[in-house]
Records
---
Amino acid sequence: MLSQIEGSLAVARSVMRCRPEVVAAYPISPQTHIVEGLADLVRTGELSPCEYLMVESEFGAMSACIGASAAGARAYTATASQGLLFMAEALYNASGLGLPVVMTVANRAIGAPINIWNDHSDAMSQRDSGWVQLYAESNQEAVDLHIQAFRLAEQLSVPVMVCMDGFILTHAVERVEIPEQAEVDRFLPPFTPRQLLDPAHPQTIGAMVGPEAFTEVKYLMHAKQMEALDQIPAIAGEFEASFGRAAGGLVRGHRIEDADTVVVALGSVLGTIEDVVDSMRADGVRIGALGIKSFRPWPAEEVREALAGAGRVVVVEKAFAVGAGGIVGQNVRLALSGTAPVVFDVVAGLGGRAITRASLRGLFEDVLADRVVPDRLHFLDLNTELVERELDRSRRGLIGAHAERMLRDLGTAGAGPY
Amino acid sequence: MPFPEVKFYQVGTFAAGNRLLDPDRRSVQTRSDRANSITSGHRACQGCGEVLGARYVLDAAMRATGGNVVAVNATGCLEVFSTPYPESSWQIPWVHSLFGNAPAVASGVAAALRAKNRPDTRVVAQAGDGGTVDIGLGCLSGMFERDDDVLFVCYDNEGYMNTGVQRSGSTPPAARTANTKPVGSEPGNVFGQGKSVPLIAMAHEIPYVATATVAELHDLEYKVEKAMSMRGARYLHVLVPCPLGWGSASRDTIRVARLAKETGVFPVFEAEFGVVTAVSRIRRRVPVEQYLQLQRRFAHLFGDHPRPDVVARIQAGADRNISRFGLLAGPEDATEPSGN
Amino acid sequence: MLKVRVHGRGGQGAVTAAALLSHAAFAEGRHAQAFPTFGSERTGAPVVAFCRIDDEPIRIHEPISEPDALIVQDATLLHQVNVFDGLRPEGYVLLNSSRTLDELGVAEVRTGRRPDRLLTVPATAYARRYLGQPRPNAALLGGFAALTGAVSLGSVLDAIRERFPGPVGEANAKAARDAFDDVAQHRRQLADA
């Protein structure tokens, strides 16, 4: 049913359609409306049978999902940022045990300094955890990806996280088509566990594996994600056939066919980028955009093919590897190794800083005019004066909490003993 | 008597009560030389019980230690509204790390102070109920078990308020929160859950455990000063109404806290090394309705579709507290082991 | 695309106002996107919410820096927050106050702008009259419909009633209707002048 609805609540309804049997919930901004929405649906009986566990921490949440999934129940939770990190050990545990848990990550920056706004540092920090990572560009896609996620997770016995930008998508009220229960039931069969805690047929889950077999176990995890590279497009294709709209897949291009310059990004910023692309195309610039929908597994071949014709590739990403460089950028360079395109790596939108069309347009024009040096990490809209002052202070050996001091520098009133 | 006898019953204001007390028994807050550990400019809501409690607790700790306190704060309302970048309301050394690790961080600070041979600098850790009762419980137990020299203060407003009023392990039965709405067969938070961290603290047999509310601020200061006169792990659990989350009028914060005690819903007591040593008696017992009806989070129990059965269960819980801690009669009638 | 920015204080329903506006536009078959800014807020702190309305799907997700229309729910914001920042020359302003823009000390916003697009309306008074509470958001949406014609009053009233069932919805709807009539009349007067 077509609805005007807040992203979080749309996701809650989509998850409800997938008939989870155990939902573990621990609140953290900006995911709270998702778990609250599900609490209401369980209470009214719209989502039934479903056990709603209010756990004591995110570690408890993922642990409960692990137990529930091992006991044969379709399990779901949601988190963000600090919460994702708090359950990091459990993430590796779920993927190592091959449990098909589905989780929404309402992407939010990781502290310190504490920041509740959007960027991708949380999900990126767990990119090697063995979870499949899918990124939604819009609330509609977020709704659709959850349905595909349960299907993929259970087909492959691998946990899947669906990433949607915190606040930007979760708290935006937009037009979304919420699928009907019958449609989802046809697409997503009941969960058939590959392993099960059942007194009738006892199994051991979670034994210790030594050097003699550990490598093989990990190899098989990798092989499973490689298999996902085929399954993800297949499921997306089936989804489109059943529900009548495209969602998910590995990558999606926007006007890349004859583009000299292609911008690569994940998540909601793609909408803004596509708008800029269209406006520059109207001015005769051959530019396009490539949206990465599946970040793990990394669709190297699809990325290479999509970017084959471009002379320049501009990666715009909402996280980076401190001390090393871009993350998506690194992955893109890997996919393009041995081929022609020049790659520019730009970090933008950290901690919720808005990425505007004006900034993006300025960036793309700078790239086209050779004003941007490739092979170096760039920060869009960086306040260079502020960082220079701070670096200067550090060189002179001044003490104190740097973040707090920089913010006082920004010119607003301060209080305290300094 | 384990705590000072207040000669004049405080009715809504400290002015009358303090003026007529001996100077050395007046509240820390009335003194011009108080530390103002958390000073003005913070962004707490009108009527916030937590900032009231924090102000009293920290200034009392500062007085007791001669101004030698380091504060460790968990993520939560207090941390958020006291440090809105680029400002800070804290005039004492203050660190915020994560949500669930305040007890562990405090243990680390205390260890460092010992290593640096600075025994006079004391550590006060503080968190809301979320950071204490739920996500912080593991670290808290560790701090108790090691008997680290930290006073841990829990400001209990019975929910995850800063993220939008979600249920915590401290949310009372039947209370409405964002994820325990009054729909379905059991309206509000379910019965049979929840935990008493004061009793858990007592089970660790730490030197001092106390509960208090922001209705009796002299008592709160007294307990902090007493705690700071001791070494080792100490725990203080303070009931702090949240007008926004509880749906009470911002002017009723202290009244609601007083009713929590006077109904028996929130027992006020002290314990040392695992046994109750003192109990703050209920002055004039009142039925739980008087407490519940001031809060919209319990509104679904009254009105058009009243639930007297649920109210009766809440009353039974209060009755149990009264009998267990001897809140009305003398301690010899209490079932909780007392040191007297 | 119509870009609307709503300024208010926490607790006044600015976020709900933007959401309701998006619902009204949706009911008319249009695309609409509503979202708030976020801060560590509390009741009374300045809040900004946004609403985009278009006939095409809306892809972008950035705050509105050049609004076509402003709804200001609380006049005390005028000298605290730069509510007029980025307002387009042909833009609309609907300000909740029983006083005029001149009396509020912001006459300069009129420079280079169309006078019949910059209005005040006593939305709080209408809200108090029917709701008994100073919650002006629904009333302001009624006024907004009259000022801009971006959505019909009917769609606004439907959105209000759906969001606030029962007597609260009816009271809000009455306040919205009064504000609509007020603004419509005011505009007619300015047109005749």
---
Amino acid sequence: MKAWQSKASKEILLERALMLKNVRAFFDARDVIEVETPLLSRYSTSDPHLDSLRTSFREQDCYLNTSPEYAMKRLLAQWRQPIYQVCKAFRDDELGTIHNPEFTMLEWYRPGFDMQQLMSEVAVLVKTLFDNSGIEPVFEYLSYQQAFENTAGFDPHRTTSDECLQFAVDNHVEIPQGLTAADDVSVWLDWLLTQLVLPAFKTGGFTFLYDYPAAQCALAKIAPSLEQAAVAKRFELFFGEIELANGFYELTDADEQLNRFQQDNQSRKHAAKEAARIDENFISALEHGLPDCSGVAVGLDRLLMVLTGATFIDQVLSFSWERA
Amino acid sequence: MATYSTNQFKNGLKIILDGDPCSITENNVVKPGKGQAFNKVKAKNLRTGRVLERTFKSTESVEAADVDEMNVEYLYSDGESWHFMEPTSFEQYAADEVAVGDAVKWIKGQEVCVMTLWDGAPLTITPPNFVELTVAQTDPGLKGDTAQGATKPATLETGTEVKVPLFVNEGDVLKIDTRNGEYVSRA
């Protein structure tokens, strides 16, 4: 194969075209409206674990979106209608077996849906895409707490970095260079998730992991509880150990959102990352009022990997980063 | 001290792990959804050749290894050190027994070897893939013995013993593949 040629087979690229057609038919049948929002923005992401790619327009810094979330929520605040989008998203420093710096994202918002309803709709979409594939997708639903108790044997909502470190030492779990008891407990949970929880997910099956620790709420509502630890109404969908989707019962409180952005920037500062300029238009939209809703983002390249049995993301992209 | 951050990791990057210089052979991002990223790295220890697997919390810094590679000509050995010369600068380097390693089995002088330097000192010597060496001693082959694949031991001028076909005689010059130590042909 020559360097100018695509590594993806013709069958896989046809499968991609069919997947996009099926996705659009799915939402069309449900009266969810397709929208487009800017890929190029004046604002970067504040998420401490993501980095926007920076470019410039007329010598002014601007950024490629890491997800279309803020702009879609602005439309949602204005229209109050279910919307979806298929677009490219870009993330710095994400490259590997299942990462490409540019990837295709499907994101949709459902006013009036809670987290459970949206998880169900995600499952229906996946089933639809698997029609005629000969595979009957099987879904499991597991709370973050249950998943940890099943595998690590402790409650992730009531642990500390010291306990996680001790757990890793006692159970001979590899400890990455740079991960110490001084790290936030969230970082430890992320690590133990990859080492213990995800490997226990059913190979070849789909798992919804939901009710994340409150500290990992991102843009999800936090459900406070008197008896139990507060949890974030956030879910992720995995196929085996591969993350396919991330969804929220969306935070609608503008003050709380602003507060989280400021906290994000504190975390970024702590990690020696540049602080993000806070997207005032997004905050203003929340002040105007976001309908009670749930939203989810699905990595379509990874979903295509699952549909075609590909092992590497390169196999399902016309031109991955090395040939882009 | 020069360092690399995990976002600079790529194949061929030279870093220090466990006090030894290593070359990254594989770098993969592990990310549990939206959370903290980790880099899973495979690296070859340039001293021992052993492959290590290591995980880093992303944005972690790792000490850079100052590693160079250059072509050098083998000059001579004084019994303790093996002396090499860089042919354009005429600069000479003395490699110890550990650095020369198995290369000693194949070099007698004037071969162009690849020398890896760490902090300016020889770390490893890789001999040319093929060398030509004279047979110092071997038993005479039996006349008329044409059995396919039959071999006998022969000692080369460097003192190294190799398996050779029965027709090889003392004084013959042989071409040897240094990567597997096998006889290729008569030169």
---
Amino acid sequence: MATSFEHKTNSADNGAMSSFFQPGADGMSFYAQNKIAEHLASSQQQNQYNFSQADMALAS
Amino acid sequence: MNIDVLIKHHDTYAGQNYPATDWNNNTMESGEERSLAEMIGDGLTAYEMLDYAGAMEFWLPAAKRGNALAQYKVGVLYEFGEGVIQDYAQAANWYLLSAEQGLPQSQFFLGRLYAQGLGIEKDFKQAAHWYLLAASQGYKNALMHLGKIYAEDKDNQNYAEAMKWYRMAAEDNHAPAQFSVGEIYMRQGGSQAAQQALKWFFLAAENGYAPAQFNLGEMYANSIGLDRDYTTALKWYHMAAQQGNHYTLVSLGRLYLSGRGVPQDFAMAHMWLNLAASKGLEFAKEERDQLAEKMAPTQVAEAQAMARDYAQKFYSSNY
């Protein structure tokens, strides 16, 4: 069985990375932030498409 | 940064040709050496009885006589402020004396102080140097921290290099390393990388590593790399929650709050968010308090009692 000295020195930060899904101080994870960014980018593209369709309709 | 010069140490590790020295059971033949061993043993007995000042009284003279193990132990007392006022510079001095004699624990702890800039100027190159020397003697935590420097240090981020070191420990069935390999795949993005990440998270989770169990819960609940499956997500979440994983408690709270995968249940949501708040997560506290405003006082009291019961059952040593 490990002594408490060994336990202390072994349990110091294990060097693993932090989770991709771990929420930050604002409660939102890296993953969620990426998802929102993707969603915003795709809806912006959609808006641009709709806008140009409307322009063409007006021009015709 | 180029650390190729140091890779030769890694070759020793990869070949499993660890030096024969067992520092904890070093054979001491002379009368003087036997007395050093006794001093170290007596210090350890004092330490186990929480008499840290007493431990120092045994270890410091042995350290001054040049014993590497005693020097390491004195360094630990200074680093953690046990029996002495915490002093990172003193810790670094003692670790250095011991590390130069080749003790892997000291090499690792000295590397940590360099990596964090505690007691000595932060120096990534020095940290990597000492971690590699410790790793070359099979000290697994040193491999992990070498990986961490490359994965998370803003000035030296290099996932390929991080992967190299994490993977070495991961293939030796080290759960935190398996988890970290999965994390690097997640950061690469894309469906193939997610599949690889799943494989490594699964290995770490099966080894009982709570952060990997949490990640699997997230991937099953949010359909990342596999089909959505709340039953399996809940299985992994509960395993992680029982070990006290902070972020799992939040995820469980949010599932019950929104009714995703489980019947909507404010009392259960409050219980999980309350447990998360008790771990010091400020945003969980805010979410819990906002939820409490929508609940009757009796329902809040019921949720608080459930949180107490859960904590007593699974976290009794911390409460």
